Automatic annotation (TrEMBL):
Biological process per Gene Ontology, one example term: L-arabinose metabolic process
Signal peptide: 1-24
Source taxonomy: Bacteria, Bacillati, Bacillota, Bacilli, Bacillales
Sequence similarity: Belongs to the glycosyl hydrolase 43 family.
Protein name: 1,4-beta-xylanase
InterPro entries, A to Z: AbfB_ABD, AbfB_ABD_sf, Glyco_hydro_43, Glyco_hydro_beta-prop_sf, Glycosyl_Hydrlase_43_Enz
Site (Important for catalytic activity, responsible for pKa modulation of the active site Glu and correct orientation of both the proton donor and substrate): 162
Alpha-L-arabinofuranosidase B arabinose-binding domain span: 318-448
One term of GO molecular function: alpha-L-arabinofuranosidase activity
Organism: Paenibacillus oralis
Domain of life: Bacteria
Length: 451
């Protein structure tokens, strides 16, 4: 679990030498902390529904009072539709706006939420309804749909969380939910009452966050597993199982013990939507929604995915040494150096973004693609890979000015923003920040960006 147009995922154009570099950042929502994503495709548009983390920087628990919604026609530029639903809309609830999902049926939009119940101990699942995917929403029942006293498969106080809703091709709707034990029930056509009994499902290492989708006649049930949470999945020929475990889609993400996924297809492309703690000051209770696109394997299985900073359409780059052209800048154990035959290969990929301290045309920061939220910065004139902590000092240390290559003007050198007489160079294969004077210095301080 756990106003107007705002471009919350940026597509910016930078020049490094003569090459244009386009990128879009993960997390996709950069101006607030969002978590527990669910997505719905409707009328050629994706609607993204999220929780809203409001814990303090040093908070030790979730502070979640409402839910947010965004929409996009390209998965890059997102419109912020504000906060159309909060816990206060449910008279029976007293707090904890945890994971949710919205689904459309017959022109109505049903928002399934979980929250703390006022009078029945434990978490509960409720339903809000609207005529629009962006609200306003109102409580559809005036009471909870699922309460803790209705489920007896676990003694947990919070086993009734993380609702996931699916409508099959025959019109039958299903509600899946759970923590520590997975449960489901059929929904009646009114979408606000259950049909028959509640059934438990056994899945390997199930923790929470179920999501059900269908592709080419195969049902995919993904879920958070273990701790810290990976995202695993199983498949079936039926929406009620039996389920065959297929493995892990994504290993635990950085700085967030939880994860929560949605998997959709939009305009012929599959997307995996999740959360991490990559924003500055982000963490377990200040999470951020991110998106990766992927292609199913030829046998219909889902490939293993890695969190990235580049997301849907950003550009990955390598930084090539001028005088050791078979070597590239890489991070290793959070140190920075040049190396050949980089292993793992992901350690050599960077995203060139506007400078954190100065976003003028010539200023850049260098962000790790596969360690989202981490940047190259100098520290005591050495270079390290470090998470952006949001401070002025960090931004200055991680910002550089692009200038013509000191050895070859068709290449590039990188001048420190806060020590403008110094440049990035390698010495003994390690990256350092130094003043440049000799011909050897100039060679060591000259690089080229390779897409």
């Amino acid at each position: 679990m756990k106003k107007g147009l705002v471009q919350v995922s940026l597509v910016l154009v930078l020049l490094w030498m003569s090459a244009a570099v386009c990128f879009a950042d993960n997390p996709v929502i950069g101006n607030t902390f969002t978590a527990d994503p669910a997505a719905m495709v409707y009328n050629n548009r994706v609607y993204l529904y999220t929780g809203h983390d409001e814990a303090d920087v040093n908070g030790t628990g979730y502070v979640m009072k409402d839910w947010k919604v965004y929409s996009s026609t390209d998965m890059v530029n997102w419109t912020d539709h504000g906060t159309p639903l909060s816990v206060s809309a449910f008279s029976w609830a007293k707090g904890d706006a945890w994971a949710s999902q919205v689904i459309e049926r017959n022109g109505k939009f049903y928002w399934y939420i979980c929250a703390e119940h006022k009078t029945i101990p434990g978490k509960a699942i409720g339903v809000a309804i609207s005529d629009s995917p962006t609200g306003p929403f109102r409580d559809a029942l005036g009471r909870a749909l699922i309460t803790n006293d209705m489920t007896k498969f676990s003694s947990s106080y919070w086993d009734d969380i993380d609702p996931a809703v699916f409508i099959d091709d025959d019109g039958q709707a299903y509600l899946y939910w759970g923590n520590s034990v997975l449960m489901y029930a059929k929904l009646n056509s009114d979408m606000v009452s259950i049909s028959g009994s509640i059934t438990s499902v056994s899945l390997p290492n199930f923790t929470e966050a179920p999501w059900l989708h269908k592709r080419n006649g195969i049902y995919y049930l993904s879920y958070a597993s273990g701790w810290p949470e990976s995202i695993s999945y199983a498949t079936s020929q039926s929406p009620t199982g039996p389920w065959t475990y297929r493995g892990v889609i994504m290993e635990p993400t950085a700085h967030s013990g939880t994860n929560h996924q949605a998997i959709i297809e939009f305009k012929g492309q599959a997307y995996f939507i999740y959360h991490n703690g990559a924003l500055p000051t982000g963490g377990d209770y200040r999470r951020s929604v991110a998106i990766e696109k992927f292609n199913y394997n030829s046998d219909g299985t889902i490939p293993t995915l890695q969190p990235t900073s580049t997301g849907v359409n950003g550009t990955m780059n390598r930084i090539q040494s001028y005088n050791f052209p078979n070597m590239y800048v890489r991070h290793q154990n959070y140190d920075a150096r040049i190396d050949e035959n980089v292993s793992p290969s992901t350690d050599q990929y960077w995203q060139i973004v506007p400078g954190l301290a100065n976003n003028g045309t010539d200023y850049v920061s260098i962000k790790s693609v596969y360690f989202p939220g981490y940047y190259l910065r100098h520290n005591s004139f050495d270079f390290v890979l470090e998470k952006d902590n949001g401070t002025t000092q960090f931004k200055a240390d991680a910002t550089f000015k692009k200038v013509a290559g000191l050895k070859n003007s068709s290449w590039t050198s990188l001048q420190s923003y806060n020590y403008p007489t110094m440049y990035i160079r390698h010495i003994g294969y390690e990256l350092k920040l130094q003043t440049i004077s000799t011909d050897q210095d100039k060679q060591d301080a000259t690089f080229r960006l390779v897409n």
